[in-house]
Specification:
CATH topology of the largest domain in chain B: D-Maltodextrin-Binding Protein, domain 2
Radius of gyration of chain A: 28 Å
CATH topology of chain A: MetI-like fold
Shape of chain B: globular
Distance between the termini of chain A: 52 Å
Number of domains of chain A: 1
Strand content of chain B: 5-15%
CATH superfamily of the largest domain in chain B: Periplasmic binding protein-like II
Largest sheet of chain A: 2 strands, antiparallel
Number of strands of chain A: 2
Oligomer: heterodimer
CATH class of the largest domain in chain B: Alpha Beta
Shape of chain A: flat
CATH architecture of chain A: Orthogonal Bundle
Strand content of chain A: under 5%
Strand order of the largest sheet of chain A: 1-2
CATH superfamily of chain A: MetI-like
Chain lengths: 326, 403
């Protein structure tokens, strides 16, 4: 290194302070130029650790799942490529279609129920005002079920709905002596599980909506009031349109969770009575781990993935959120 | 080097046991570990619902336990994942370990043979019997020391209990779908019914006997008013509200703890041959990775032999009847409360060949699910028994014919 170059380094405040050798400085300049010419690369590098984990634990299993859905999978004896045979076998099975129908029924009940209750709670608390006494307590009580695991929720509700000793069943029977026994009647098993699921998940959606409500500028409400808007006008023409991003987030989350529901069904009804509550995720589990037909189960998994994808995109389109997404 | 040589061989034993039987196995393994310095067993126990899937996956991933458990009827499904004990990679383990087949209950030993090889070492026979509440019997004017043995006696007893204001009878433990199916099996088997033809090409239960068996099961929960669909017999019995319960030997601990003054009897003869539902736990060596040393196989066999030779503990505390004949005569076992109050009856049923094992077919689980889904709907009054059997037979045929 020449004396002049050392002097030049010394004049450079930053480089001088860290005493970088010339080649390191040159390298840094080249890197800076590279990032300047290739915008976005820097962000990608920051995201790389997460992308690596995501690729190994999420993307790869999905790709491998699609791959094994084309095989009669048996690593011990040798897997056999069967093309689309697993899908064809699946589509010919009435039990599969029953599971698909149950999944849609369950989603059809759960999604509006969870979003409706979550939104209702959020609006109730918002209207009640933040500074009211006991507000935090009510909020915590409504959010609490979300902290429980699915197995605890399912066991608690199974007890509540127990024919002989269930508190909920007992109370309902006191009011309506001919009320159904929820978990043993095919028409009521899925709604009962949907109710338990709504109790479990609505609290978190409530928080999402509360955050959305807090984002709405107060001036807009003042202006609406000056214009003589009534509460329902405010709800439908002001609150709901401005809550769209929160609604989208909650909808995507709830759709995914409703379509891949498994634990509650397994514990509360095992898919019964008969197959009245056997949803696709439970069917997949049985095929994979009871019948050990992994190829066919993987095919069912691919179908489930596509269903979730289509339904989520449909939800986004329904909400008309293109501009928000962009 | 001396230190290395003295290091004990580690054997992992993965079971599907839980609650009382898990504790019983723990006692045996603790005893083994205390009395052996050259081999140490790590016991891993838990639920049975995903056990077979886990066992298969552990073999596939090259990390299986050295010892596992297999129900008799699961051998056909699991054989590819098990070590043939008479033809293992290191030789005939049965001979090397000095296992004497004549010391095991013959039927249980033979159940371990498939395709000319022997895979299983019998541990026990377990099954259902009749638990009854002596106080309710007294309240109903029945003899508490003389439980019903035949269908007419059973009807009289059940009606008397109903009249006394109790639930009369629950034929299927907690009424889970698989339990309802087993209850139907029992009635059907007692009539001499067969579920499938010899070659498992089609279902053979959609007939008069199958229908009568299902009508009986449906009537118990509906027409007879002896119980209600969806009721949990375990809970009802433990709460002192149920007169008679069909349940497995694993109910012993709960019955004792409940404080109910209970009695136990063999399965009544409802329809001709007093069969009961049952099965057998057997011990296996899952398929080991290539290059597993001979010492590991021999150590595993030593543990298995020890379990057999101490299986009176298994019976006393786990409730399952040992399949190792010398242990069935163990004085400590014969003097135990469990044996006197219930074990001897289950043993008598097993000795008489009245414990009927379930479906033994590679698609056994799928077939059983097909049957139980329809049985449950019939019991809940959603479809008629005729429709249930028709649907179940059609689905079984489709499964067997690969549709």
């Amino acid at each position: 290194m020449t004396a002049s170059s050392r002097a030049a380094e010394g004049e450079d405040g930053e480089a001088g302070s860290t005493r970088l050798p010339f080649f390191a400085k040159a390298m840094r300049e080249r890197i800076s130029r590279f990032f300047y010419r290739h915008p976005g690369t820097e962000g990608l590098l920051f995201a790389l650790p997460f992308i690596a984990i995501w690729a190994v634990f999420l993307a790869w299993p999905v790709v491998y799942g699609i791959y094994i859905s084309l095989f009669q999978w048996n690593p011990l004896q040798g897997s056999k490529f069967v093309g689309l045979a697993n899908y064809i076998s699946l589509f010919h099975e009435p039990r599969f279609w029953n599971a698909v129908a149950n999944t849609f029924k369950f989603a059809g009940m759960t999604i509006p129920l969870i979003l409706g209750i979550g939104l209702g709670f959020a609006l109730m608390l918002w209207a009640w005002g933040k500074r009211r006494r006991g507000m935090v307590l009510v909020q915590a009580a409504l959010f609490f079920p979300y902290l429980l695991t699915v197995s605890i929720v399912a066991i608690v509700w199974k007890w509540l709905l127990n024919r002989d000793f269930g508190l909920f069943q007992y109370a309902i029977n006191r009011i309506f002596p001919h009320a159904p026994v929820f978990l043993t009647e095919p028409a009521w098993a899925l709604p009962a599980i949907a109710l338990a699921t709504a109790w479990w998940l609505s609290g978190y959606r409530m928080l999402v909506f509360q955050a959305g409500l807090d984002e709405i500028p107060v001036e807009l409400f003042e202006a609406a009031e000056i214009d003589g808007a009534r509460p329902h006008h405010k709800l439908f023409h002001l609150i709901l349109p401005l809550l769209k991003p929160s609604l989208l987030f909650a909808l995507v989350l709830t759709t995914i969770s409703a379509f891949r529901t498994f634990g509650q069904v397994l514990i509360m009804t095992e898919g019964g009575p008969g197959r009245a509550s056997e949803v696709l995720a439970l069917y997949l589990y049985r095929v994979a781990f009871d019948y050990f037909d992994i190829g066919k189960a993987a095919a069912a998994g691919v179908v489930l993935l596509l269903m979730i994808l289509v339904m989520t995109l449909l939800g986004v389109r329904l909400l008309g959120l293109k501009s928000e997404l962009q | 080097m001396q230190g290395l040589a003295a290091k004990p061989i580690k054997i992992t034993f993965n079971t599907l046991f839980h609650e009382a039987d898990a504790k019983a196995m723990e006692q045996i393994i603790d005893l083994f570990n205390k009395t052996h310095t050259d081999i140490q067993v790590e016991l891993i126990q838990g639920g049975w619902t995903q056990y077979y899937a886990q066992l298969r996956l552990s073999v596939m991933s090259g990390n299986p336990p050295q010892i596992g458990i297999c129900h008799t009827n699961k051998l056909v499904e699991m054989a590819d994942y098990l070590t043939p004990l008479d033809a293992s990679p290191v030789g005939n383990l049965l001979e090397m370990a000095g296992i004497d087949p004549t010391k095991y209950v013959e039927a249980a030993w033979k159940a371990g043979e498939l395709g000319g090889h022997h895979y299983l070492i019998p541990l026990d026979t377990h099954g259902w019997g009749l638990w009854y509440n002596k106080d309710i019997f007294k309240a109903a004017g029945l003899d508490p020391e003389n439980p019903p043995r035949t269908l007419p006696e059973f009807f009289l007893a059940a009606e008397a209990i109903k009249k006394a204001g109790y639930y009369a009878f629950h034929p299927a433990e907690d009424a889970a779908p698989r339990k309802l199916r087993r209850a139907w099996y029992v009635f059907y088997w007692q009539m001499g019914g067969r579920l499938f033809d010899e070659g498992y090409t089609h279902a053979t239960f959609n007939n008069e006997k199958g229908l009568l068996a299902l009508k009986m099961l449906v009537a118990i929960f509906n027409d007879f008013g002896w119980n209600k669909p969806g009721s949990n017999g375990y809970d009802q019995f433990a709460a002192g509200k149920l007169g008679m319960l069909v349940a497995g030997n694993w109910f012993y601990g709960t019955a004792v703890k409940s404080g109910v003054n209970w009695g136990y009897a063999p399965m009544p003869n409802f329809f001709g041959i007093p069969y009961t539902w049952g099965n057998s736990h057997q011990i296996v060596i899952p398929l080991q990775p290539k290059g597993t040393p001979k010492e590991v196989y021999l150590a595993a066999m030593e543990v298995i032999k020890f379990i057999s030779e101490h299986s009176h503990i298994w019976t006393m505390y786990g409730g399952h009847i040992t399949a190792y004949k010398p242990e069935a005569e163990n004085p400590e076992l014969l003097a135990s409360d469990y044996w006197k109050r219930s074990g001897k009856w289950l043993n008598a049923m097993a000795q008489k060949g009245l414990v009927h094992y379930p479906i033994n077919h590679p698609k056994g689980s799928e077939l059983e699910h097909a049957i139980q889904a329809q049985i449950e709907l019939a019991v809940n009054g959603v479809i008629s028994p005729e429709e249930a059997l028709e649907r179940a037979a059609a689905e079984c045929d489709r499964i067997l014919q690969g549709g």
